[in-house]
């Protein structure tokens, strides 16, 4: 029983996921970094099979994931030969790569959005994915008040690429009965009322938005610690500097704004009050590569008015962190479909996402969300 997966975006995260899965299948590595690896789920890690990869970067389309992985991870890294079979297909562009400085073309650039939708739906009808994972470049996007407005914006070419891909998943699901869409980027899908409604009615399970890795879930858990001990947090500073293309993308203002919204949405939800906060992906420095520098500083008032400070400095491999949680999200996506679930699932999003859908959901500490997730999965 395999779980067939289509990846949107052939970048760092997609590459680490594909390489890691093959190495796990051959038992070359332990499944660390996959939160539920030690639980017995109906699907094993080995059941995941990547059947398609889409990008719009002209230097990637047509290449194999093996060639791309060699560029991303270096030719000294043992890239599994199996990835030679996975060729990158051309996806939908919209303006997702604007300002990135590389040449990109989508099917929509040549044939318009409605035709691009038809082409991908028919490709997916032969690939037969159960789960579609969105890891394209972060792009700016708004929410839609209704499914009619969502459809109108998407088909008239006024939406970001993520929304077109979600729409393609809906069209595909309405033909085959069901599909799951994992939105690991900040562009709103699970938090987008109109689009979510459209997806739900078409038979789609949606997880989103923006995979929670690195400093943001750590901050959430530290805030929970402060809340439980009734320590008054005076301020929080948290920033990341990285040298991968995702960090480069975030130097562009509208893309950074999207991340800021998903990153800072948790503070009041967890503490119960507002506190001055600076939580942003702050900069790009190429030599750091994928191993980003994370700094965090917070100050709080303790018993009898005494003030304490916490400082955290870390270097964290960015893309493997997201790839690890995607292994679970893919398996849970299929489990949700088997259970007949449609629309979004808060207990899944609350643990795995920075901005858990549906819209206006509470952000809780990941340490708490973990047990909610186990309950939902029937593991506790
Ligand atoms: N820990 C993490 O790395 C982490 C955590 C949360 C979210 N994310 C999000 O995951 C996404 C991917 O991160 P990454 O490090 O792999 O970035 P990346 O820049 O290496 O990869 C993104 C890929 O998407 C492609 N792309 C851009 N527009 C596209 C489109 N319209 N259709 C298909 N492909 C398109 C790009 O050409 C590129 O190959 C980013 O949006 C990032 O914000 C990453």
UniProtKB/TrEMBL annotation:
GO BP: any one term: inositol biosynthetic process
* InterPro entries from the UniProt entry: MIPS, Myo-inos-1-P_Synthase, Myo-inos-1-P_Synthase_GAPDH, NAD(P)-bd_dom_sf
GO molecular function terms attached to this record: inositol-3-phosphate synthase activity
Domain Myo-inositol-1-phosphate synthase GAPDH-like: where? 214-319
User: Which regions form coiled coils?
Assistant: none
User: Can you tell me which family this protein belongs to?
Assistant: Belongs to the myo-inositol 1-phosphate synthase family.
> What protein does this entry describe?
Myo-inositol-1-phosphate synthase
Provide the species name.
Zestosphaera tikiterensis
Q: What is the lineage of its organism?
A: Archaea, Thermoproteota, Thermoprotei, Desulfurococcales, Desulfurococcaceae
């Amino acid at each position: 029983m395999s779980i067939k997966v289509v990846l949107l975006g052939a970048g760092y995260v997609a590459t680490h996921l594909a390489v890691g899965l093959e190495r796990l299948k051959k038992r070359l590595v332990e499944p660390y970094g996959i939160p539920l690896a030690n639980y017995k789920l109906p699907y094993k890690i080995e059941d995941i099979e990547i059947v398609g990869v889409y990008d719009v970067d002209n230097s990637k389309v047509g290449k194999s994931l093996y060639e791309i992985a060699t560029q991303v991870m270096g030719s000294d890294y043992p890239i599994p030969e199996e990835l030679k079979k996975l060729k990158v297909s051309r996806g939908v562009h919209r303006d997702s790569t604007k300002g990135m400085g590389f040449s990109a073309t989508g099917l929509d650039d040549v044939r318009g959005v409605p035709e691009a939708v038809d082409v991908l739906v028919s490709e997916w009808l032969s690939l037969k994915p159960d789960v579609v994972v969105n890891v394209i470049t972060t792009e700016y996007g708004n929410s839609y008040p209704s499914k009619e407005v969502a459809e109108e914006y998407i088909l008239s070419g006024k939406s970001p690429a993520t929304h077109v891909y979600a729409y393609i998943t809906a069209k595909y699901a309405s033909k085959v009965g069901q599909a799951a869409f994992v939105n690991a980027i900040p562009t709103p899908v699970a938090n987008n009322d109109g689009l979510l409604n459209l997806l739900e009615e078409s038979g789609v399970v949606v997880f989103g938005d923006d995979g929670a890795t690195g400093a943001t879930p750590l901050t959430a858990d530290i805030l929970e610690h402060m809340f439980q001990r009734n320590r008054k947090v005076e301020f929080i500073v948290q920033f990341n500097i990285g040298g991968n293309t995702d960090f480069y993308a975030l130097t562009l203002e509208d893309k950074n704004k999207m991340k800021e919204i998903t990153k800072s949405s948790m503070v009041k939800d967890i503490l119960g009050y507002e506190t001055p906060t600076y939580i942003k992906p702050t900069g790009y420095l190429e030599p750091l590569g994928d191993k980003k520098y994370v700094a965090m500083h917070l100050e709080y008032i303790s018993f009898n008015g005494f003030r304490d400070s916490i400082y955290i400095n870390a270097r964290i491999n960015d893309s493997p962190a997201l790839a690890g949680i995607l292994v679970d999200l893919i398996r849970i996506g299929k489990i949700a479909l088997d259970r007949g679930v449609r629309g979004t699932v808060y207990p899944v999003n609350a643990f795995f996402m920075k901005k858990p859908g549906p819209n206006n959901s509470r952000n809780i500490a990941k340490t708490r969300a973990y047990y909610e997730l186990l309950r939902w999965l029937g593991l506790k």
